[in-house]
Amino acid sequence: MASLDEFEREQAILLELEKSGRVVVAELAVRFGVSTVTVRKNLETLERRNVLRRVRGGAVSSGVTDEGAFETRVRQAARAKLAIAAAVSPLVDHGDVIAMDSSTTAYYLAEQLLDRRNLVVVTNGIRTATLFMEQSDALVLMPGGVVRRSAGSLVGPIGDVLAGRGRIDKGFFGLIGLSVAHGLLDLSAEEALAKRYIARSCKEVYGLFDSSKVDRFGLHSFVATEAIHLLVTDDGIAPATVAEWAAAGVPVRTVRPLDAQESAVGRLPATAVRRATG
After folding, report:
1. Domain harbouring 25, CATH code
2. Does 124 fall in a domain?
3. Residue 1: inside a domain, yes or no?
4. In a domain? residue 99
5. 266, part of any domain
6. Model-level pTM?
7. What percent of the chain has pLDDT over 70?
8. In a shared domain, residues 38 and 86
9. Residue 22 is part of which domain span?
């Protein structure tokens, strides 16, 4: 295997854990072409983030049902997410009232909308709210809740805080998984609950996701299939899956992930710049 940097090694370790549930230090050292000391340092870093548990000779999955830290997720499938954001951004006009969740795909979209004037943005994403606050004139509304540190979100039973305040034009939501039977899915019950309350106030709901999410497992539905206006993903999605959603009355728009040249550093979220183009 070609020499990998620290981030790439960590991602490879996490993928192997997702696949087999266990990794072995000696095998990883050979695979990466690095010393066992280096591998142990990588495992120590990942253990501090609570995504694995070190055991004698290697590590096992921590069993935490969480999609991972924002800083990790924002770098995954970055070119696909940037292309999705670029395709969706023309749907938002000056003065619109929009909702965005705490997903990294929504964060990419937020980067594309900073020049929109007089936006009203309802979001439970702390980083998305901060981005709009610091770099735009948007009015940002956060419905409240409990801070979920790993996701950088406010979650929980926000109740009827949005009810009776008027309709939100469009809502943009990332997801952990999706199914025609259950709609858009999340692993976290608290995250799904917050998204559900926000989505109920939206005239149109858009599901934004890279194609790897199609086969992912999700426990909690936050938008039913019949309430989805459009799904937007990259062209890695299987044609049969697109046809299945079309038969359920939900159109799927696919985009081509941007290549390295198109993914200019200036267009990537600041938290992703160093790694996303690697």
Report:
1. 1.10.10.10
2. yes
3. no
4. yes
5. yes
6. 0.72
7. 83
8. no
9. 6-61
Secondary structure of the chain in HEC code, one letter for each residue: CCCCCHHHHHHHHHHHHHHHCEEEHHHHHHHHCCCHHHHHHHHHHHHHCCCEEEECCEEEECCCCCCCCHHHHCCCCHHHHHHHHHHHHHHCCCCCEEEECCCHHHHHHHHHCCCCCCCEEEECEHHHHHHHHHHCCCEEECCCCEEECCCCEEECCCCCCCCCCCCEEEEEECCCEEECCCEEEECCHHHHHHHHHHHHCEEEEEEECCHHHHHCCCCEEEECHHHCCEEEEECCCCHHHHHHHHHCCCCEEEECCCCCCCCCHHHCCCCCHHHHCC
Same domain flag for 180 and 229: yes
Residue 67 has pLDDT above 90, yes or no: no
pLDDT at position 271 over 50: no
On whether both 107 and 151 belong to a single domain, the answer is: yes
Mean pLDDT of the chain, nearest integer: 85
| Region 207-220 average pLDDT | 89
Q: What is the mean pLDDT of residues 178-201?
A: 91
